[in-house]
Design goal:
single chain; Porin; 2 helices; 18 strands
């Protein structure tokens, strides 16, 4: 049981750890999706130094997925490539990648159906922190109470340092999956590579593990991760202010680690709901800029919950024409403390409250029509701050998404 048909758990990209796409015989699978968002957002700040803004946006994305598969009994060999067409995507700043073509998944996998597999390439890890029918990636409500100037609120953390697909040219993942029982599955994921090839860059390695206990109506998920980034170059110190002259150091180093868990409940076909909590820690050190960069060393903590309800079916089981109408809501609260201190034992503090409500109707079991209303507030308190230095940003947004799966 993936979730309510058409709901956010049913659409969860990693299929709760199941081996997908599943193919019972040798062949080539063709699938994909296309969506178009049209939205509006307004941002206001209590700080006179931060500009207010109003933004209208339409963005679109389409994925063509090709999955050639060889099958012999339970044994299989499989590859997958996803060609992506981007209309316009918000990636922290609106529309940096307008009109581009790129790749999402690109991986090879070998294993036995419902027993084990080994997967290598570019892909997403298993999801732990679920947000429901809102906070979709590349959307206004996901960005939250951002501003065109000044500090930005923290993005939520969901055991997600190593969840998303690797972005650098020379990075990739390898993951082993094990299915000892129908209700229990494990992922052990590794990361290895470099952020640049034949130029100055950083070497990256790390690992992420996720366990999922799944009874259908109840899903318990837990995960932990760690990664390490170091400079590909070494440096000989010539500045006494940075340490002993002539000492060779290894340059930049960054470590990230985190953990979290989630519980999800499904009462099919009426209600699904869940809650998640996670914490991540980043430590940043660059001897070439006088040691640790305190503002980039932080602890981020997120807690959230969601619920999706088939409202009409719950109130009147005989009114089948509205069986595919879903009402959803969710909230995520994120706090971040960094190590930057100014006349205070406390570091810089920021927080991000993100709330949404969504209404979705599924036309002909094919076309998803979803409206999302959202509110976000970002709170900022720099270390040693007084007066207007302590302030909040607020965001209100609305968008309509049309999405077709095939």
């Amino acid at each position: 049981m993936r979730g309510l048909y058409g709901g956010s758990l049913w659409l969860e990209p990693s299929f709760h750890g199941l081996q997908w796409p599943y193919m019972a015989k040798t062949g080539v699978g063709i699938s994909g999706s296309a969506w178009v968002d049209t939205g509006y957002e307004t941002n206001k700040s209590e700080s006179s130094s931060v500009a207010n803004s109003t933004t209208y946006l339409q963005q679109a994305r389409a994925v063509l997925r090709v999955t050639p598969t060889y099958v012999s009994g339970r044994f299989f060999i499989q590859a997958q490539a996803e060609l992506v067409g981007n209309g316009c995507q918000t990636t922290g700043t609106t529309c940096l990648n307008a009109g581009t073509v790129s790749t999402d998944d690109l991986w090879l996998r070998i294993g036995q159906w419902n027993v084990w597999d080994l997967k290598v390439g570019r892909f997403e890890g298993w999801e732990v922190f679920h947000t429901g029918m809102g906070l979709d990636i590349n959307t206004f409500e996901r960005m939250g109470a951002w501003a065109t100037s000044g500090s930005q609120p923290p993005d939520y953390y969901g055991v997600s340092f190593l969840h998303d697909r690797p972005q650098a040219l020379g990075q990739g993942y390898a993951a082993a999956h094990y299915y000892p029982f129908s209700f229990l599955r494990f992922e052990l994921q590794g990361e290895l590579g470099t952020t640049a090839v034949k130029t100055a860059g950083n070497n990256v390695w790390g690992g992420r593990s996720v366990a999922i206990f799944d009874l259908g109506w109840l899903k318990l998920k837990a995960g932990a991760e760690y990664d390490n980034t170091t400079d590909t170059n070494t440096f000989t110190n010539v500045d006494p202010a940075k340490g002993p002259v002539g000492k060779v150091d290894d340059g930049f180093k960054q470590t990230r680690k985190g953990y979290g868990g989630a519980a999800q409940f499904i009462y099919d076909p009426y209600v699904e709901l869940g809650g998640s909590i996670a914490q991540g820690i980043q430590t940043y050190n660059n001897p070439q800029v006088n040691g640790q960069n305190a503002t980039n060393s932080f602890t981020v903590t997120s807690v959230g919950g969601f619920a999706n309800v088939r409202v009409v079916r719950l109130l009147d089981p005989d009114l089948h024409i509205l069986d595919d109408l879903l009402l959803g809501g969710g909230v995520v609260w994120t706090t971040e403390y960094n190590n930057h201190r100014v006349d205070s034992p406390d570091g810089d503090y920021s927080a991000h409250l993100q709330i949404f409500g969504a209404l979705q109707y599924l036309i002909a079991k094919q076309l998803f029509v979803k409206g999302v209303f959202a509110y976000a507030r970002g709170d900022f308190k720099p270390s040693g701050a007084v007066g207007e230095d302590v302030y909040s940003n607020e965001m209100y947004s609305f968008r309509v998404r049309l999405m077709y799966l095939y």
